[in-house]
Amino acid sequence: MNAGSILPTDATDVAVAEDADAYRAARSVLAAFSLDAYRGKRVLLKPNAGRCSPPGTGVNTNPQVVAAAIDSFTEAGATVAVGESPITGVNTLEALETSGIAAVAREHECPLIDMDARHYVEVEIPNGEAITHLKVCPEALEFDSVVSIPVMKTHMHTGVTLAIKNMKGCLWRRSKVDLHMLPAQDRKDARSLEIAIADMASVLRPDFALIDGTIGMEGLGPSAGTPKPLGVVVAGPDGFATDAVACHLMGRNAEEVPYLRLGAERGYGIIDLDRIKVFPEHWKSFASPFEAAPENLAIEFPDVTIHDDQSCSACQSTLLLFLRKHGAELREYFPENDPINIAIGKGHTEVPEGTLCIGNCTARHRKQGKLVAGCPPVGSAILKNLQARD
Ligand code: SF4
């Protein structure tokens, strides 16, 4: 379908297109907006290419959605580039290559930027509640505009990850991890990470959001979930409003996503669907609920107790991918009848005797168990560690 038949007029408007062709869907929602304001501007397109994962898996942004953004903003008279700073332990150019985004950029003669290559710029957050400053990739500040192009995913730590949270990929290298390591805050309605993302949005908000819901991810997002083909693309100039519409399409209420609610309360954007004009009128018919991310990783691996306290998604995905590959043989490496305990994250005061401690965050418990060092460690290091137990 074509979302461009009625043109949105207000800053809070959002357009949705459903089309089996990802490029056509993205071009369609972008055509619903006047991009004239970008003429003569330098525009940074910020997809989600945070991991080395091929197209179609729902991990990274669909390269055809990025291609559509390159074409639409270029035709509007902007000078565009595609940039990313992936999760810790992942090489930017490798992730862009594996995702298919690098090939599309080359085809469209669009520069690719490894945003980890240069030194960071320290940005103060004057009214930050959980954080007071951020190390930001310089390109995010130097370009006139940033277009956030995430893939629609559930997230084990934040419920969903969409255009606002995708801006975390503008934080420099390992400093992204700092947001997972914050002390607990004195409030019950949001965790430190969620408050920090709202704080981040006070200084790093996209100028335009283009959300790829062609193949999203449900369940164990953001990296080990199940691809969710939805066939939609959502766009708008207010990242919060665009996220709120995407949330609805995923069967979620943005008011229940703490970082979106906090940001909206502070006036960074609007998430109240009654105040957002969405095009076309029947957009809600495109919704298909996403299976939520479980709170406990052990759900998928009943014989294993995973102690996850304040880990970040890099260690989570290392562990999940490892368990998927080697979960069935894990019992061989633990004494018969002994429980299989695995710990990730820095929040543990203690862990059970014999625990497999994964990642440098668990290093202080190495005496009670066995440490697989690294931040994050690679899966092969976990296997090596287990094999060396005998
Ligand atoms: S060790 Fe793991 S949980 Fe800790 S900071 Fe590194 S990647 Fe994150």
Describe the structure.
- With 390 residues, the protein is of the alpha/beta class.
- It has 2 domains: 3-286, LarA, N-terminal domain (Rossmann fold); 297-387, no CATH class.
- It is 26% helix and 21% strand.
- It has 12 helices and 16 strands.
- The protein has helices spanning 22-31, 63-75, 92-99, 101-107, 139-142, 163-166, 175-178, 192-201, 239-249, 258-265, 313-326, 379-387, and strands at 14-18, 42-47, 79-84, 112-114, 121-124, 133-136, 145-149, 151-155, 159-161, 208-218, 226-236, 278-279, 304-308, 340-344, 356-358, 370-372.
- The strands form 3 sheets. Strands 1, 2, 3, 4, 7, 8, 9, 10, 11 and 12 form a 10-stranded mixed sheet that branches. The protein has a 4-stranded parallel sheet with strand order 13-14-15-16, with helices on one face. It has a two-stranded antiparallel ribbon with strand order 5-6.
- β10 (208-218) and β11 form a beta hairpin.
- The chain is globular, with a radius of gyration of 21 Å.
- The protein starts with 13 loop residues before the first strand and ends with a helix.
- The model is unreliable at 1-7 (pLDDT under 50).
- Iron/sulfur cluster binds next to α11.
Task: Based on the model shown, name its key terms.
alpha/beta, Rossmann fold, 2 domains, four-stranded parallel beta sheet, 26% helix, disordered N terminus, binds iron/sulfur cluster
